[in-house]
Amino acid sequence: MMRRSRITTDVDFDRDGNQQGFLKLPHSIHRSAYGWIAIPIIVIRNGPGPTVLLTAGNHGDEYEGQLALIKLCREVTQEAVRGRLIILPAANYPAVIGGLRTSPIDDLNLNRSFPGDPDGRPTAAIAHYIESELLSIADFAIDLHSGGSSLMYLPSSLTAVVQDDQRATRQLDMLRAFAAPVGYIAFPGGEDRTMLAAANRAGVPAIGTELGGSGTASVQSVAIAERGVRRVLNHVGSLPGVDVSEELPPTRIMEVRGSDYYVYSPDYGMWEPLVDLGDDVHAGQSAAAVYCPRTPWREPVLAHFTESGTVICRRVPGLVERGDCLFHLATDRSS
Ligand code: ZN
Known about the structure:
Layout: E1 8-9, E2 17-26, E3 36-46, E4 51-55, H1 63-75, E5 83-88, H2 93-98, H3 122-134, E6 140-143, E7 151-153, E8 156-159, H4 165-178, E9 182-185, H5 195-202, E10 206-210, H6 219-235, E11 252-255, E12 262-264, E13 269-273, E14 280-281, E15 286-291, E16 301-304, E17 309-315, E18 319-320, E19 325-332
Parallel strand pairs: 4-5, 4-6, 6-10, 8-9, 9-11
Antiparallel strand pairs: 1-2, 2-3, 3-5, 7-17, 8-10, 11-19, 12-19, 13-15, 13-18, 14-17, 15-16, 17-19
This protein binds zinc ion (ZN).
The site of zinc ion has 6 residues, from loops.
């Protein structure tokens, strides 16, 4: 039996209308004995129809999705909606305000905190609320991410592997509707502490994104985010008025089949990338050379790809520690 969340809210999920308010997460600290953390929430409901949960700011330093949802809640009218949209543009609010991947309050990563804990630290309490209170009333979910400060992606949407064939098909349809250049299926048996894993436990068809990164947003990546969210909302019946007549290149459906699709730095130092985003590489090919800035004449240590595929993600900062992720690949989906 799941324990009840301590988070309360001033929005009424069952009322028609366009409500803006806050989730109130009790946070008793030296500065504020009876205070709470105010996480913005928007609920737009208009009669019968699906409930879609839209989240961004799960990681605070990923801006494309946050911008897309801030703009969405300002632009979408109640009349345009069928059913209900639940929008959290700053899901891990302390991380968003800090401009950080993880919460500066507890150093926790929301997307490694599901199913969470109602009595735990703030990030765990947020995860618990999303899984127990929001996913439990959702029919569909979209969780918007990008590479954040340390990674850069080819603009991608993604889904988790799910055992239910019907839900897997729905998720693929959502990937295609989002119309990012790449849509990939994350590797099976991966993380079970993510929002997509939580959606899977709740039986909710869900997609995520990796829209760009580098701790900023671009014209292109925000446009893909905004267009993708509206197209998926149209696809599931929430926003029937969205014009989806624009002819877009089809999404390249890919897979990340396992942990060997990732390349990690074998040493500390300064890394030279030997390939770029979008390059096709083969197993055994050199991926990066890691030099020692303290002893410049020392031989660099090479990192290699252990699989063949397309580079869809790379590290951004120029300095590395041993174990930092430098690249990851995806391959075209085998049907
Ligand atoms: Zn993220």
